[in-house]
Amino acid sequence: MASFDEMDVDTIWMDGEFVDWEDAQIHVLTHAMHYGTGIFEGARCYETEDGPALFRWPEHLDRLYNSAKPYEMEIDHTREELTEATMELIRRQDLASCYIRPLAFYGYESLGVSPGDCPTRTAIAVWPWGTYLGEDALENGIDVMVSSWRKHASSQIPTNAKTTGLYVNSMLAGEEARRNGYAEAIVLNKEGNVAEGPGENIFLVRDGELYTPGLAESILDGITRDTVITLARELGYTVHDGATISRGELHTADELFFTGSAAEVTPIKRVDNVEIGDGSRGPITEELQTRFFDVVERRTDDHEEWFTYP
Predict the structure, then answer these.
(1) Which top-rank group of organisms is this from (predicted)?
(2) Do 145 and 67 share a structural domain?
(3) Are 145 and 266 part of one and the same domain?
(4) Domain membership flag for residue 109
(5) CB burial class (10 A; 0-12, 13-18, 19+) of residue 150?
C-alpha cells in the first residue's frame, strides 16, 4: 500500500463536517486511543461503466451499527447521512474506485475504563487501494503460516463486531508471518481449529466442495465471505458453511483461498511451506474469483441489488 502522502486525497468527513485530511485529528487522551473502544468498517467502491459503485454498502452499514451495540455506543448519524457523506467524498476527490473506512469511537472527556460521558465520534475516509496482499497475489497466490497467536473466543470479546482494539490480535499474527517470510497468517481458535486470517475469512476446497468456518469458530461474518458463498451456490457448488476445519486439513486441501473486502478473493498456494494442491491457483478458486470480479466490476447485470451509485 502506498503512503497516504503519495495519494491524491485531501478530505475526510468527521462528525458531520468535511475537513482537510491533515486536520482530521483527535486528542491524545481520547478514550479509544487507550482502550481500543472503536468500531469500523472496510468497504470497496468499484469502477464500472456506470461510474463508481459501492459494493454491498447497506450490509456494511448494518454491521457497523450492530458492532456498536455490545459497547452501548450511539452513532449520532443516520445511515442516510453516512451514505451521503461517503458519496460526497468520492465525488469531491473524483475517485473512480476506492476503499472506504467508516469509523466510530469513544472520544475525549474522561479516562476511566468506563467511557462514561465520552462522546461518540464518527469519521469516514476514502482512498485508492489496489491489491491488498500484493500485485500478483490474485493470480499466483500467497504463502501463509499458521500463527502461534490464537483468536479470542466470542465468550471473551464479541468476535462478530469489528472492534478496533481486537485488531491487535490480527496485527500480531500478521507481523509474525511477515517476519518469517510469509505474506499472511492463518489464526486458529482456542480449540485449535481454523478460524480465519488476520483480516480475511478462509475457504477450503476438497473433492469439489467448499468448506468455511462459521460463527461458532469465532470468526467475523464477512460480507465478501457471504458473497462468495452465494456465488458458489449459484454455480452449483456445495458449500459447507459452519465447517470445523482442523489445522492438518489445511495441508491436505485441494485448494485454499482468503476472502475479504481488502483481500477480495486471494488464493493460498502454501501453508507452513507445505504446497497446497499443485502450488498454484486452483480451478475452483479461479472460477469463483473470475465470477466475483465479473460481478463487482459490473461485467454482468447479475446482483444489481448489491450496488449503490454516488
Answers:
(1) Archaea
(2) no
(3) yes
(4) yes
(5) middle
CA dihedral sign of residues 162, 171, 34, 17: negative
41: containing domain? 4-127
pTM over 0.90: yes
Number of domains, the chain: 2
For 131, counting Cβ atoms within 10 Å of its Cβ (0-12 exposed, 13-18 middle, 19+ buried), the class is: middle
Q: Is the dihedral of CA 295, 210, 161, 269 positive or negative?
A: negative
Determine, yes or no, domain membership for 153: yes
Provide the pLDDT confidence category of residue 135 given band limits of 50, 70 and 90.
confident
Same domain, 9 and 35: yes
Going by C-alpha positions, the residue among 110, 127, 107 that lies closest to residue 119 is 107
Catalytic residue among 151, 162, 190, 269: 162
Is position 162 annotated as part of the catalytic site? Answer: yes
Using alpha carbons, select from 235, 300, 296 the residue that is nearest to residue 264.
296
Take residue 35 and report the three cell numbers written for it: 482502550
Q: What is the pLDDT of residues 194-231, one digit of tens each?
A: 999 999 999 999 999 999 999 988 899 999 999 999 99
Three-state secondary structure string covering 246-292:
EHHHHHCCCEEEEEECCCEEEEEEEECCEECCCCCCCHHHHHHHHHH
CATH code of the domain covering residue 292: 3.20.10.10
113 and 77 assigned to the same domain: yes
Tell me the CATH number at 24: 3.30.470.10
- Cell of residue 1, nine digits: 500500500
